[in-house]
Amino acid sequence: MMVIARKRKKIKLGTVILYTVLIVSSITCLYPLIWLILNSFKTNSQLFNDPWGITFSPVFGNYITAWTSGKIGTSFLNSVFVSASSMLITIIIASMAAFAITRLKWKLSGAVLDFFLLGVMIPIHSTLIPLFLMFNKIKLTNNYLSLILPYVAFALPTSIFILTGFMSTIPREVEEAFIIDGGSMAGVFWKIIFPLSKSPIATISIFNFVSMWNELMFALIFMSDQNKMTLPVCLTRFKGQYSTNWTVQLAAVVIMVIPSIAVYLLLSDRIIESMTVGAVKG
């Protein structure tokens, strides 16, 4: 009885320590974001006089100035279009490729998967100069395709890897029953495999959207037209334009951060499930 009681005490103490560490870690991660949001509603004088305090008279004009005068609104819509388009194209191509590799019987399926995974070894920015020379030659600079194409190309290897790990775990009896009932292979993909792959699709959507949304170098080099610039590029120039108006800069940063957080919150409930399935199978 004494041994059992001691084990229970140890378990309770360990649980308390674990949750304490998790709470402290969460506060450490969340506080900069909370500080950023709180100070974006202040004036410059309030920011410098009390940077850690809470204002009871929020200044919404900071967001209006950032959105209109700083042209954050136009760049925000450009980023939404480029990131959403790249993400959707990646999902469709990667899911089709993973379906062909895992569900269809052909000799080179393993070699094709290895070929796609070679892309993981290539640093994305090592292709910056060759792609710029190529796009400039075919007059594709200042075009959304100059961003969408490399974003999709470099998102495919990891996306295909995650999807193949999941699709290979789906029982073949499901699609065989569908085909016996008169279904086609296209129907197997769109009506069975693709809907069942919502968890890994959510995972690659989070990873790809965040990386595409925050990407700077390609957008900075390939886009010189101010009306087509994405949000990260606009923020670099926005900083120089409003170098003394710190609260407006903070409001612009909040606008930049919100979409990534929103996408993660919407899809995060499926990320652990899909990663676990892929890890077990892989």
Q: What would you say this structure looks like, in words?
A:
The structure is a single chain. With 282 residues, the protein is an all-alpha fold. The chain has 2 domains: 2-39; 61-281, MetI-like fold (Orthogonal Bundle), CATH 1.10.3720.10. 76% of the residues lie in helices and 0% in strands. It contains 14 helices and no strands. The chain has helices at residues 2-39, 44-49, 61-68, 72-103, 109-117, 128-137, 145-167, 172-180, 185-196, 198-214, 217-222, 231-241, 246-267, 271-281. Helix 10 crosses helix 14 (271-281) and helix 12 packs antiparallel against helix 13. 30% of the residues are buried. It holds the Pfam family BPD_transp_1. One of its GO terms (cellular component) is plasma membrane. Belongs to the binding-protein-dependent transport system permease family. This is Putative ABC transporter permease protein ORF2. It is a multi-pass membrane protein.
List the helices and strands and how they pair.
Elements lengths: L1 H38 L4 H6 L11 H8 L3 H32 L5 H9 L10 H10 L7 H23 L4 H9 L4 H12 L1 H17 L2 H6 L8 H11 L4 H22 L3 H11 L1
Helix pairs in contact: 1-13, 3-13, 4-5, 4-7, 4-10, 4-12, 7-10, 7-14, 8-9, 10-13, 10-14, 12-13
